[in-house]
């Protein structure tokens, strides 16, 4: 068996913890010997224990002289627990194969150095691109100090998200809506604006049986106090962590709701870049899914805060008087437009899902 084979197993393991380990990365780990997987593991809920520790502690057979495959460089700094490198060195592992280098400045190459100095053979770069893509949220927080931000949009062929009366149930079919619930489970948080809150009164949870305990943190941008006790989000805030993002201290707060106060821009509205930064520093979010309306999506676009567009497109047409998913941008030249590249197409019976990444 090749290194790529065992690393692909580790990557599939890492995927299992996406959406449940923030602010830490989702890491998978495999220990193999004589071409056979001995033990495997992935990052624990909340980010601990780390994948390497989970795997080492689960080993029942001897791993002396074995090879460890891990999707991200093992940590080498002291935190809540001792470094993973110490555990690996102590275990008798002979060789460590690493996909991606940890972008955290406290590690970044230090883990590899520590292993090599202990006489362990290290190979790095196996399926690196796949590993970095899987942990795009963690890499984004380290580089840009904000979460990776994806916008999910249910739209018609002509790019509309509701009729002029606000009716939007349902633009897409059941297959697509189930796919979206699975998607939500892979994100740390889901966000809407106050207009979507009032118009749709959503739950923003994962409602498929196998994902019902994987609902992301819910975020509502609401500086005018539109969230009321009777809204579905407020009624379920004791079950799913919920934050209201506002630009001022609200005199009246709702039970079980957390509040994050961020700065205002010159127009007195929430400064989105400050909000994005505080989502990392105050809440620990690495992957954010936005399911807001045209106003929120447009503002995020204007502030270069959209990394991915996920357009769930149906075969319906609503016409010019319907509500678009992007409103006025004031673009006068094609050369000035926002550009995205096609990343993936998912084909369902009634709809297609288009995934577009920012150039």
| Biggest sheet record | 9 strands, mixed
Number of helices: 11
Instruction: Name the overall outline.
Output: globular
Helix content: 25-40%
Short summary:
The protein is built from eleven helices and 16 strands. With 359 residues, the protein is an alpha/beta fold. Strands 11-10-9-8-12-6-13-16-15 form a nine-stranded mixed beta sheet, sandwiched between helices. Strands 2-1-3-4-5 form a five-stranded mixed beta sheet, with helices on both faces. It has a two-stranded antiparallel sheet with strand order 7-14.
Task: Provide structural commentary.
This protein has about 350 residues and is an alpha/beta fold. About 25% of the residues lie in helices and about 25% in strands. It contains eleven helices and 16 strands. The protein has helices at about 5-15, 50-60, 85-90, 110-115, 130-135, 135-145, 175-185, 195-200, 230-235, 270-285, 295-300; strands at about 30-35, 35-40, 65-70, 95-100, 120-125, 150-155, 160, 190-195, 215-220, 240-245, 260, 285-290, 310-315, 325, 340-345, 350-359. The strands form three sheets. The protein has a nine-stranded mixed beta sheet, with helices on both faces. Strand 1 (about 30-35) and strand 2 form a beta hairpin. The protein is globular and about 70 Å long. It starts with a helix and ends with a strand. The model has no long low-confidence stretch (mean pLDDT about 95).
Task: Present the secondary structure layout.
Blueprint lengths: L2 H13 L12 E6 L2 E7 L8 H8 L8 E6 L11 H8 L3 E6 L9 H8 L3 E4 L3 H7 L1 H9 L3 E8 L4 E3 L11 H11 L4 E5 H7 L16 E5 L10 H4 L6 E5 L11 E4 L10 H12 L3 E4 L3 H9 L5 E6 L9 E2 L15 E8 L4 E7 L1
Parallel strand pairs: 3-4, 4-5, 6-12, 6-13, 8-9, 8-12, 9-10, 10-11
Antiparallel strand pairs: 1-2, 1-3, 7-14, 13-16, 15-16
């Amino acid at each position: 068996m090749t290194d790529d084979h065992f690393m692909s197993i580790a990557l599939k393991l890492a995927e299992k913890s996406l959406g449940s380990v923030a602010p830490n990365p989702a890491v998978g780990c495999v220990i193999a010997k004589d071409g056979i997987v001995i033990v495997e593991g992935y990052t624990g809920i909340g980010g601990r224990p780390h994948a390497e520790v989970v795997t080492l502690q689960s080993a029942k057979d001897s791993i002396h002289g074995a090879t460890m495959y891990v999707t991200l460089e093992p940590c080498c700094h002291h935190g809540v627990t001792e470094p993973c490198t110490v555990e690996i060195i102590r275990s008798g592992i002979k060789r460590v194969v690493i996909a991606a280098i940890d972008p955290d400045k406290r590690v970044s190459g230090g883990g590899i150095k520590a292993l090599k100095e202990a006489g362990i053979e290290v190979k790095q770069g196996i399926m690196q691109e796949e590993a970095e893509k899987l942990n795009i949220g963690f890499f984004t927080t380290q580089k840009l100090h904000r979460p990776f931000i994806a916008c999910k949009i249910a739209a018609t062929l002509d790019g509309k998200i509701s009729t002029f009366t606000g009716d939007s149930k349902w633009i897409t079919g059941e297959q697509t809506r189930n796919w979206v619930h699975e998607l939500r489970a892979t994100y740390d948080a889901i966000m809407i604006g106050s207009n979507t809150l009032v118009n749709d009164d959503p739950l923003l949870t994962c409602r498929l049986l196998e994902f019902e305990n994987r609902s992301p943190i819910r975020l509502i941008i609401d500086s005018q106090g539109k969230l009321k006790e009777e809204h579905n989000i407020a009624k379920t805030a004791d079950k799913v962590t919920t934050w209201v993002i506002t630009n001022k201290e609200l005199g009246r707060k709702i039970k079980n709701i957390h509040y994050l106060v961020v700065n205002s821009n010159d127009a007195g509205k929430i400064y989105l870049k400050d909000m994005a930064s505080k989502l990392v520093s105050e809440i620990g979010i690495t992957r954010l899914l936005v399911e807001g309306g045209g106003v929120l999506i447009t503002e995020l676009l204007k502030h270069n805060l959209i990394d991915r567009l996920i357009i769930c497109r149906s075969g319906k047409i609503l016409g010019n008087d319907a509500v678009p998913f992007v409103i006025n941008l004031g673009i006068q030249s094609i050369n000035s437009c926002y550009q995205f590249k096609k990343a993936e197409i998912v084909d369902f019976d009634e709809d297609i899902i288009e995934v577009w990444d920012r150039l």
